[in-house]
Write a structure and sequence with these properties.
heterodimer, A: mainly alpha, 5 strands, B: alpha/beta, 10 helices, 37% helix, 23% strand, globular
Chain lengths: 361, 260
Amino acid sequence: MTLLRIECPPDLNLETGRTLFDGESFATVRAGDECLIDLSQTREMDPHGGAWLIRLAEAVRLRKGTIRWEGESGQVADLMSLIEPGLIDEPPPPAREPGYIENLGGTTIAVIQEGREMMSLFVDVIYWTFLAPFEGRGFRWAHFYDEVHDMGARAVRITFLMNFLLGLTIAMLSAAQMRTFGLSIFVAQLIVIGFARELAAIMTAVVVSARTGAAITAEMATMVVQEEVDALRGMGLNTSQFLIAPKLLALIVVLPCLTAIGMVAGILGGLCWGVWVLGFRPEIWLNETLAAAQWTDISQGLLKSLFFAITIVLIGSHNGLRVTGGSRGVGQMTTRAVVMDIFMIIVIDMVFATFFYFTVG
Amino acid sequence: MHHDNPKDDPIIRVDHLISHYGESKILDDVSFQVAPGEIFLVIGGSGCGKTTLLKHMTGLLSPTSGAIYSGDQDIADLSEEARAKMQQGIGIAFQSGGLFNSMTVGENVALPLREYRQVDARLIPAIVRMKLSLVGLADAENRLPDALSGGMKKRAGLARALAADPPIVFFDEPSAGLDPIMGAGLDDLVLELRRLLGVTFVIVTHELDSIRKIADRILMLDRGQVLFEGTVAEAESSGIERVQQFFERRPDTYIAQRNL
């Protein structure tokens, strides 16, 4: 073990500190050596000078040496004692990245836990929406009417427009194929069946999940962040009853209506293309349309929209209620809710399509 | 302090409470009890578990182990319904007020009254006006929480906590972020409510002035453990280093030690 003495300049600052460090006076330090920083000449020291000393101490520590200082006085002594923890203590290790297996296990547990949370929320919400009111336990009708207006009436225009444009586009694309066989008139049937079974329900659900689903999550999450949910629970009031049940019932009422509007809008979109571009007379196109319109197809779309409504409200409130971490969390949860919504809408749609394929045909 | 019975049973009793958040232990074997009519202060530095303790005492969190007795019932054991019933008998005032932003201040205060359905509905507006006057917000009844200052939100939250005349009120950081005058005003209000209505208060705070002025007894937490329980005078002469340090406002760093 040897003792290495490093003498510091009278004025220890950014420049002189750099010279001291770049001089690599510590290069000869071996394990177990002691490095003595001599501050007896130093009259002045600024924070940059101190930072260079910390840097030096780190370099010595890397070589498994130890560091000590002496001779400090006045302002230098005061500053040295302030920065002492930085000189002596090891810097905290960076957060450890979990390994692959650990990640996998963590994710699995998180998914199971989330599934369980969602299931119990589902049961709770269904109870407070459909059963509790009949037991005389109260349902917030005023809130329900507000939500119907907000989720329904105010979404009519955008739902109509989106479905209309989609109808137009589908007519355009399929007409291009059908025309080669001279079967353009069948586009009318295609549009009806497509919109009744699939497109209106999906398109409307996607619009609503982006509009209403995101709003539900953002609202709930903000309420959690601002202690409103705690306040509610602290009063012995149930969040499912108070916040979620009116929304669920409202969307269950509203989404099938919007879907029906979507069906009409899509058919109108197709009609516009058929009449203006393909040159059919409106009554011929309409006849084709009405002939192809089957109640079984329409009811498929409407039935699906009920499930979409439950999904959107449930995912929205679930994500909103489990927010952590302030305003950033609110944003993250809202994004997550919309992504989950759209994913689940597609999955549910696929399940229904498979079911109907093997039953109704 | 007036009691009906000098040997009152505790209004709330915390027994070997342990609580985790994720993997970190927030509360470690905390035990104490609060007597009726007492102003009981939970104090300690930031992040010592004060607010978590309050959430446990009000049934908002479930402990890892240990129990919280309200009467002789462990509130963690209660059914959801029974817990809601218990919560209707307490008042909680939150740090930021916790007011519902979609309702006016008056509707916020009226909410517990309307939901519990224990008072004549015709009386509710009068009760709301009375509680708002108590906290000095009589003129804010029809304003939305957004339009209030931080201190006003806090006081409106207290009015809501007092709405159903609970025998015990939990108050999270009443004076944090308030100017000294408003903070002192809240202290006076707490003392008056205790004197006039016999309300028990459990208050989380770290404001020294407030602690000295209103506390009957304090519980000091440090990193989730009970450091001290007793009166302020006992705390200041306890000889426990961390407690002394807190009351003398001595920081941890070197500057403080040098300036002694």
